[in-house]
Amino acid sequence: MRRMTARPANAHQARLLRLLRDGGPNSRAQLGDQVDLSRSKLAVEIDRLLETGLVVADGLAASRGGRRSHNIRLAPNLRFLGVDIGATSVDVAVTNAELEVLGHLNQPMDVREGPVAVFEQVLAMAAKLKVSGLAEGFDGAGIGVPGPVRYPEGVPVAPPIMPGWDGFPVREALSQELGCPVMVDNDVNLMAMGEQHAGVARSVGDFLCVKIGTGIGCGIVVGGEVYRGTTGSAGDIGHIQVEADGRACACGNKGCLEAHFSGAALARDAEEAARTGQSPELTARLEAAGRLTAADVATAAAAGDSTALDLIREGGNRVGQVIAGLVSFFNPGLVVIGGGVTGLGHTLLASVRTQVYRKSLPLATGNLPIVLGELGPTAGVIGAARLISDHLFSPA
Amino acid sequence: MRRMTARPANAHQARLLRLLRDGGPNSRAQLGDQVDLSRSKLAVEIDRLLETGLVVADGLAASRGGRRSHNIRLAPNLRFLGVDIGATSVDVAVTNAELEVLGHLNQPMDVREGPVAVFEQVLAMAAKLKVSGLAEGFDGAGIGVPGPVRYPEGVPVAPPIMPGWDGFPVREALSQELGCPVMVDNDVNLMAMGEQHAGVARSVGDFLCVKIGTGIGCGIVVGGEVYRGTTGSAGDIGHIQVEADGRACACGNKGCLEAHFSGAALARDAEEAARTGQSPELTARLEAAGRLTAADVATAAAAGDSTALDLIREGGNRVGQVIAGLVSFFNPGLVVIGGGVTGLGHTLLASVRTQVYRKSLPLATGNLPIVLGELGPTAGVIGAARLISDHLFSPA
DNA sequence: CAACTTTCTCCACACCCAGGACAAAGCCGG
DNA sequence: CCGGCTTTGTCCTGGGTGTGGAGAAAGTTG
Fold first, then answer.
1. H/E stretch holding A236
2. Which of B71, B32, B31, B77 is nearest to B54 (CA)?
3. Where residue A152 sits, what CATH number does that domain have?
4. B358 to chain A, minimum CA–CA distance in Å?
């Protein structure tokens, strides 16, 4: 079938499309309440949108005490593809225009295999979602990669954990393959956008989203918009020094946050503890599986293993220390913590909170919630869908 | 005489006023090149601005190969008052509409004397500038205070070093006294705006401006706009921890940046060094003056005193360590260092640079200039003038 | 079933603004 | 000094945009 070709012709139409995306189906009258346009003008713009096929009529709305209004919704056949490439796995999801996830696949995969192999996998997963009847084609795709991206062009730049991706034209290539518009961003930024759209960060203008996975990154949202920095590397907090003469890090420095706490560091510490016999729980798991991951630490902690709990607490203190500094500097309205280690849950959260509330000034922490992300692995793909929808729902 | 009452009626007029403010007198044709409006429309808007008296005709421009164009400039009698209240002194300046400083006064003064006493002083200084013939009245005033401000209302909130100012309606009160519009902001933000307007940060969209005076603060500029945070305390980096179990700070914590390096800390360290006889140079100065300031350390260092140099280097390392973290996080296009300690000059700058370039990732530091502010004490007052002019040169 | 409310459409009018025609002013080469 | 050429400024027309009112359509409430 033919996919979406139209784009909003002006800012009003773009505004309306975003309202429908974020608020779901809506009556014409309700839309009118939100946009501050005359009824005549509003009718004209909606009619034009109906003509383009981007929105469709959808029956009558409930009465608000008088004549019933006609409902309007985004075209139900619109489909976005959200791709979240992590260090060790890939998530691919299909959403409708309201960014509801209709289907979601996850597959282990090492980014270091390079863009070609990864793309093959992604395309196979997208095809699988297609044949399962969820989509007949894609109107746009968003994709997140675990490293800095030169944003407008959609090209990774000097990504530390993605050898072979440097300068690879991700946007261009994927757009070719899928035959639809594509936008590329850092995976952490997408997580932030996801939580902003459908998670804990709704209605917060300025917030930080700390993602602790294989590495550590931080999405920065200023005035509702993701801030990417001058060269696209903003939020790269994994290599902030937390210990004067600490552990050696892959980046060449010593004492980096990532070297002391992250999914990878936690796994190493756990294996170490298991080998030296500090924790029977972990030792047993190591013998069973041959190696340990952050998830093993989480289950051990849930079972009350004190070594595991200590590891988490110490890590939380480290991250909390850095976040405390960022809170003083950035004065956000919310801090979201997510990523693979969300399983560590409230033990982690508690020590982060302790550090932040103790080490930042009262004015900045006074009304500052520090919470876990509520979308888990879907945050990234929803954020990816939102990335491309923001792009498509803006005046051409 | 009657002061400016008119305000730009629309975004086009606001745009033109700002172009004239930032670019000085300009021909109609040159303005046309910059605004992308039809000649007819441009002529209409300029005529309206001429009617309001905000701009005036100013003779003929040089020919660009054809008919000579008419010059336009902002009304030469417009006057802004820039006020920069520091912890230990007050700066007051008058500027024209192009934000050129026409007169500048500086007076030692302790903010802790409270808003009433300080205002008396400020008004006296403003009156002095007035009678010297520089202004017949003020069309607007910007004022910076050394603490967090709830921005839209212009009210200090919980300022640590300004007891008695908490909740004082600075904007309202000063507006009453001066009879003109007033805007209030943090002094660090004003310094950033000053350097952006007339200093080293021209044409940089995202940058940080670290001000090291009695305390330490950081102005954050995102996309050309000052970022103030959720509660107006963004940039408050003085209490970021730099040493795990470091010096006790007035805020109640240990190891804060400000406790280890700032104008106040440096003076204490210098006095300590003088008393223990580590530096004959400093000892002599202490005996002569009874106490030491950062300026004494600067002159001692300039004279080659190794103790003074060590103090500066150590301080630079501390600040550099924090800035390195901020650079990783924020990925700015420029870092400006200013404030009272600018006198420490290149010794300080060198150690800051060393730390940042060593501890931040290459992608973020690759093309990152770290420079001293070039406006010195006028940065604050120019920033203050710009604050109010931004306000007045925006659509009503 | 009548009065009131809400929603939607239609239409007249004002305003905005681009772009062309044209006049004014200045440059340059002969 | 004169005639083309360029640049600048003004005037005018026509299309597009958006407001607000009138009134019809559709429902609700008592």
1. none
2. B77
3. 3.30.420.40
4. 8
Distance from CA of B163 to the nearest CA of A (A): 15
Q: Rounded to the nearest 5°, which phi and psi values hold at A337? A: -115, 130
- Closest residue to C25 (CA, C1′): B67
pLDDT at B341 over 80: no
| A317 close to B (CB below 8 A) | no
Q: Which residue has the tokens 């104008």?
A: B263
Q: How far is the CA of A39 from the C1' of D22 (A)?
A: 14
Q: Chain D bases under 7 Å from protein CB?
A: 5-13, 17-22, 25-29
CA–CA separation, B279 and A300 (whole Å) = 58
Strand C near-CB residues (< 7 Å), A 313-342: none
Pairing of β B55-60 and β B70-74: antiparallel
Q: What are the b/e assignments for B251-277, b being 16+ CB within 10 Å?
A: eebebbbbbbbbbbbbbebbbebbeee
Taking CB atoms and an 8 Å cutoff, what residues of chain A touch B362? 158
**Residue type at B320 in one-letter notation:** G
Within this chain, do residues A166 and A315 fall inside the same structural domain, yes or no? Answer: no
Residue A1 has pLDDT above 60, yes or no: no
Residue B203 forms contact with A (CB below 8 Å) = no
pLDDT at B235 over 70: yes
pLDDT at A131: 94
The model's pTM: 0.93
Pair A350, A234 in one domain: yes
Domain of A25, in residue numbers = 11-74
Whether B367 and B250 map to the same domain: the answer is yes
- A46-70 pLDDT, tens digit per residue, is 988 988 889 998 888 877 777 888 8
Protein-to-nucleotide distance from the CA of B61 to the C1' of C27, whole angstroms: 15
Of the candidate ranges A85-89, A241-245, A334-338, B273-277, the one whose mean pLDDT is the lowest: B273-277
Q: What is the pLDDT of residue B82?
A: 98
Beta bridge partners of A73: A56
B70 vs B27: CA distance, rounded Å: 5
A41 touches strand C (CB under 7 A): no
Mean pLDDT, to the nearest integer, of B13-32? Answer: 93
* Tokens linked to A184: 């590329």
Q: Given CB atoms, is A87 within the 8 Å cutoff of chain B?
A: no
